[in-house]
Amino acid sequence: MEFEAVIGLEVHAQLNTATKIFCSCANRFGAEPNTLTCPVCQGHPGVLPVLNGKALTKAIKAGLALGGTVARYSRFDRKNYFYPDLPKAYQISQYEHPIVIGGGVTVVRDDGSEHTFPLTRIHMEEDAGKLVHPADTNTHSLVDLNRAGTPLIEIVSEPELHSPEDAALYLTELRAILRYIDVSDCNMEEGSLRCDANVSIRPRGATTLGTKVEIKNLNSIKGVSKAIEYEIRRQTEALACGTAIVQETRLFDADREVTLSMRSKEEAHDYRYFPDPDLVPVLVTEERINELRASLPELPRARKKRFMEQYGLTPKDVGTLCASRELADWFETAAALAKNPKKVANWIQAEVLRILNAKNQDIADFSVSPQDTAGLLNLVEDGTISGKIAKDVFEKMVTTGQDAESIIEAEGLRQVSDSNEIDLVIAAVLAANPAQVEQYRSGKTAVKGFLVGQIMKQSGGKANPALVNQLLEQKLNQ
């Protein structure tokens, strides 16, 4: 029997507000354990939470960017369960009345076709603390409550993904959108974007869902893809052998690339949801929604389309350049000043990203401005320097902070386009390589590349390559 996978994703994105969702503690990653806490996020009896208005604004912006319907009325509930890093023994979340209903994430497949994966809802909630398991002992764990009370949105998809590739495309686009609108830094390594995957298997063509297995706390797109791939294989093999699938929660072992049973899955009623008595309902006006909709920037999908139309870029080009809003802004600043925007796109992919990856930096930290990069490429375009020298100059721009003109003047790197001067170099190279000249004239024309290389070497790489080829061919054919 042929089976198909049915996948739903629950993505938790930490909102990048200055303070936590219900108190004034700083919302910051990396502080010493238990230094960013107060009685509210520690869950002391009698304390009163107060909703962070900036968190609400960012949740609404996420819903609008993803095409959802913002609820005029939403409400916070208590989700009751005990866990060592949840000091109140309940989490403040939204259940029956979430802030956003519907929406979708539109992806572009390798063949260029578009597909929209629908969303069920987006709701707000607080994050729990974090358990730390010391490497030198297996007798105890430590609790860090710095993360407790961090504002989250949970983005829940409909179960309409069907492969690890679908999941990777979905998460990549979702992360880009959240970053573009500046609601989350989506740093999966730091846990500000985490994903739970619900995976089930059913006979192809069936309409009822199979038994759902949840894989918790996946913290990389590659990890999500690998976990789903393994779980599909595990469930398919089990059903093929007549073994029933057990509804449960599993964890992913990234080193072994397998999922492992964690606990039996709770149903919603096990959490005993009820309205939080300390928080008033959230009312959002139509005017506020329209105001936030108007504040949204150009989103990744629209920007990709515009870049292809305006600058003649390929889908591969825009996929790279629009991966982050900052990189797309950097490109567009340079392209506006460049004589050849396509050359800017190529240069970013070949040179800029190579240097950033080597230094483990983001474009915001790059030492060369887009204006200076455009200036360098314009010098190549007008023949002042060659493409090879441009690469050397760019390396010096990165290390010194100087612009291209200053480096070229100081080191005498301007391209030689004087035909008389180049003729002298060609004559010297031909005189020094008579055997290669004879080979060319006897029909072995590939040797011309060797001669061009010798001429460029003799000129210190400064001879105009196009003029070298033209003049060399004239001399060889005399």
Question: What are the salient characteristics of this protein?
Answer:
478 residues; alpha+beta; Arc Repressor Mutant, subunit A; 3 domains; 10-stranded mixed β-sheet; 3-stranded antiparallel β-sheet; 15 helices; elongated
Molecular structure report:
There is one protein chain. With 478 residues, the chain is an alpha+beta fold. The protein folds into three domains: 287 residues, no CATH class; 114 residues, no CATH class; 58 residues, Arc Repressor Mutant, subunit A (Orthogonal Bundle), CATH 1.10.10.410. It is 40% helix and 19% strand. It has 15 helices and 17 strands. The strands form four sheets. Strands 1, 2, 6, 7, 8, 11, 12, 13, 14 and 15 form a ten-stranded mixed sheet that branches. A three-stranded antiparallel sheet has the order 5-4-16, with no helix packed on it. Helix 2 runs antiparallel to helix 3 and helix 14 packs across helix 15. The longest helix is centred in the middle third of the chain and has 20 residues. The termini are far apart.
